[in-house]
Inverse folding.
């Protein structure tokens, strides 16, 4: 195209100049006029002279024109032969065709599409051109069942140049409307967001408005990026594990008639969130009709008192600060009285308990003693280092603000030691737990997949030694304690159960609780932290009326680990060899504690 | 004079040729542009169709849907930890246990499997190209 345009531009320019010159110098060949208007008298040789003048002018003009043509020729060769290739090389490929710019896809860690844009047609009217609004409204109403005739009529009679009648038609509707042949009705091509996996990844992916503006999830937090490139955004989620977690959680919800549940799988090496489930969920393809409870992301936005799972952090603090060693312990015979509160154990042992036993039997009294010996400031600093006292930094805008006492009194130190009086989100919890088991480094949590060889820098929060001890303690809880139901054979699950009474109007309500399990596997070299939480479970006959973390959430973890282990290529091991070594720890502790036990009796 | 006429003729011919050539190029370009337009439209249609198909593929691959299909049509169950065995833990056949102690055993095992395959036609077991073998790889329908 440029080839055609350029030379003609040039030609015009030159001829314009030319005509200007010849205009002033008169017509070079018009000898008659020349002679008529000249002041010369007709003499011998004047004709010849005039011819000479004409000839030179002709030559001059010819020269100029040929120079101009030569220049055009040079330019032509330049464009076609010399620069031509460079221009054709930049021709468009399918990916960057004009008019096909679409909002980028969102895919999971294996490239499975979680959100994509599909082309659709939308119907609009130029109301000034519609000849018979009554007829058009009647006919359109038959095709568009969602619209009332009055509404359509009002729009068609509005006299506006542009008015939407229906966005995102089905192909059938489009062809029906097309065949009506009503003037003034037009289609506009649009993109519509589609979520093939629907409710499964709804809270992570989020949804968009009808104009493709992100309103929730990564659709919102990566809105600009998704609109500017059509490169897919790869999340760290794995739909298969997401499905396993969702299925097991919803089975637990049904079994225990719970009102909600949340679950996470978190990679302790690089902070990636592999699964993030919040139930009940909603269908993002019809996000407008979802209820608020379903849209609420319990995994990141909800903050909860986590109960006994906090004893892990409490123990890690005491061990890391050197306040106790695993061989130490406390007498848990007497409940602790603080003002009008009395702190008791759920299943009192009424004897001296070693540190491993305090976790195994989930002793509140032992945990309180540990926290009191460490002191308020150390506890506060430790929890803050674990990122439990500020909102998690995460690629979602639905992030809950943790709640903790503004004035941290001694009584708060006591209750926080066993997970009451502080509320955190499951996301914060799994991230902190990751630091306990991965060697002691707190990694930034991420919902976007890292490059395969990328190492994620973390900040050290506990020593490697403490981390190793915590792994052993967590395994012991599963082998001997309340977490027995989470023991997925071959995968060395370790963890801690939690059961927290729910606060309602500032009072704890019995029989309205949060049952959870916070675990990691395989304990020989932890790769994943797994967390499951069930909201307000009710005991059943099979569980003898219990609805505690050990009965409700631990079996979920067991099944999730069993099913996801082979998927993530974790080789099952004969755990008894590794377990024997860990059990030896308990045996040693008990042997050394013999004296204490006697003393307290 | 005839020289001049000849030159004139040559020039006229050159002129006519260049005019013809210019128009030829012009029409050729127009034709190519139409073709390009059609090709682009087709590409856009195709890429849209691909988007729709990819979305549909992802939709059909919903884990819950696959689990449902697998339950209905296959004998597979989730893999259990005890089904994963190290190569070293596999027992050798008694006859070979003595004479092939230092071989890695893998070839023997494969040969064994092939030999026990229902329609094994020849004795060699290796290098056979014909006939579909039904080697029982992982029948996990009923846990033992």
């Amino acid at each position: 195209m440029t080839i055609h345009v350029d030379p003609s531009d040039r030609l015009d320019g030159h001829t314009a100049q030319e005509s200007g010159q010849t205009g002033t110098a008169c017509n070079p060949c018009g000898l008659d006029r020349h002679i008529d208007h000249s002041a010369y008298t007709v003499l011998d040789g004047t004709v010849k002279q005039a011819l000479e003048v004409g000839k030179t002018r002709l030559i001059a003009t010819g020269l100029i024109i040929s120079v101009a043509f030569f220049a055009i020729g040079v330019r032509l060769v330049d464009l076609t032969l010399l620069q031509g290739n460079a221009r054709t090389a930049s021709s468009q490929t399918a990916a960057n065709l004009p008019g096909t710019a679409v909002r980028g896809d969102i895919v999971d860690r294996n490239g499975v599409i979680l959100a994509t844009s599909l082309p659709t047609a939308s119907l609009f009217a130029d109301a000034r051109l519609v000849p018979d609004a009554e007829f058009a409204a009647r006919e359109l109403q038959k095709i568009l069942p969602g619209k009332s005739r009055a509404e359509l009529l009002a729009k068609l009679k509005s006299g506006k140049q542009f008015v939407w009648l229906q966005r995102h038609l089905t192909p059938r509707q489009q062809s029906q409307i097309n065949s009506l042949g009503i003037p003034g009705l037009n289609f506009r091509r649009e993109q519509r967001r589609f979520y093939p996996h629907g409710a499964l990844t709804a809270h992570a992916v989020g949804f968009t408005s009808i104009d493709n503006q992100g309103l929730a999830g990564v659709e919102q937090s990566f809105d600009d990026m998704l609109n500017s490139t059509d490169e897919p955004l790869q999340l760290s989620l794995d739909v298969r594990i997401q499905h396993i977690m969702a299925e097991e959680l919803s089975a637990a919800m049904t079994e225990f008639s719970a009102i909600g549940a949340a679950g996470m799988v978190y990679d302790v090496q690089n902070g990636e969130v592999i699964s993030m489930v919040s139930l009940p969920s909603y269908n993002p393809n019809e996000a407008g009709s979802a209820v608020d409870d379903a849209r609420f992301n319990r995994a990141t936005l909800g903050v909860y008192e986590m109960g006994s799972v906090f004893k892990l952090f409490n123990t890690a603090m005491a061990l890391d600060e050197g306040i106790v060693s695993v061989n130490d312990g406390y007498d848990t015979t007497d409940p602790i009285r603080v003002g009008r509160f009395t702190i008791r154990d759920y299943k009192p042992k009424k004897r001296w308990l070693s540190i491993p036993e305090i976790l195994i039997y989930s002793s509140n009294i032992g945990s309180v003693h540990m926290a009191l010996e460490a002191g308020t400031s150390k506890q506060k600093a430790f929890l803050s280092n674990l990122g439990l006292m500020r909102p998690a930094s995460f690629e979602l805008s639905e992030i809950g603000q943790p709640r903790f006492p503004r004035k941290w009194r001694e009584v708060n130190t006591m209750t926080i030691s066993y997970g009451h009086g502080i509320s955190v989100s499951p996301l914060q919890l799994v991230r902190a737990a990751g630091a306990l088991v991965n060697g002691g480094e707190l990694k930034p949590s991420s919902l976007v997949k890292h490059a395969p060889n990328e190492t994620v820098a973390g900040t050290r929060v506990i020593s490697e030694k403490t981390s190793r001890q915590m792994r052993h303690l967590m395994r012991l809880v599963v082998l001997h304690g309340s977490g027995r139901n989470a023991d997925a054979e071959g995968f060395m699950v370790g963890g801690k159960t939690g059961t927290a009474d729910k606060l309602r109007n500032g009072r704890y309500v019995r029989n309205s609780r949060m049952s959870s399990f916070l675990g990691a596997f395989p304990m020989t070299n932890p790769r994943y932290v797994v967390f499951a939480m069930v909201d307000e479970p009710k005991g059943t006959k099979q569980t003898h009326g219990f609805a505690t973390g050990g009965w409700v959430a631990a079996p979920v973890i067991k099944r999730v680990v069993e099913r996801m282990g082979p998927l993530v290529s974790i080789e099952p091991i004969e755990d008894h060899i590794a377990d024997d070594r860990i059990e030896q720890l308990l045996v040693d502790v008990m042997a050394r504690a013999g004296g204490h036990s006697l003393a307290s009796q | 004079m005839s020289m001049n006429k000849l030159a004139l003729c040559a020039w006229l011919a050159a002129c006519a040729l260049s005019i013809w050539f210019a128009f030829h190029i012009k029409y050729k370009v127009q034709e190519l542009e139409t073709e390009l337009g059609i090709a682009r439209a087709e590409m856009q249609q195709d890429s849209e169709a691909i988007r729709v198909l990819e979305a549909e593929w992802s939709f059909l691959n919903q884990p819950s849907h696959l689990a449902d299909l697998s339950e209905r049509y296959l004998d597979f169950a989730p893999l259990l930890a005890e089904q994963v065995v190290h190569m070293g833990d596999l027992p050798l056949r008694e006859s070979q246990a003595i004479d092939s102690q230092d071989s890695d055993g893998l070839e023997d095992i494969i040969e064994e499997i092939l030999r026990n395959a229902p329609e094994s036609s020849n004795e060699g077991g290796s290098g056979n190209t014909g006939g579909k073998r039904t080697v029982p790889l992982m029948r996990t329908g009923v846990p033992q």
Notes: Chain B has four helices and no strands. Residues 59 and 76 of chain B are 22 Å apart (CA to CA). The two ends of chain B are 112 Å apart (CA to CA). Residues 38-77 of chain B form one domain.
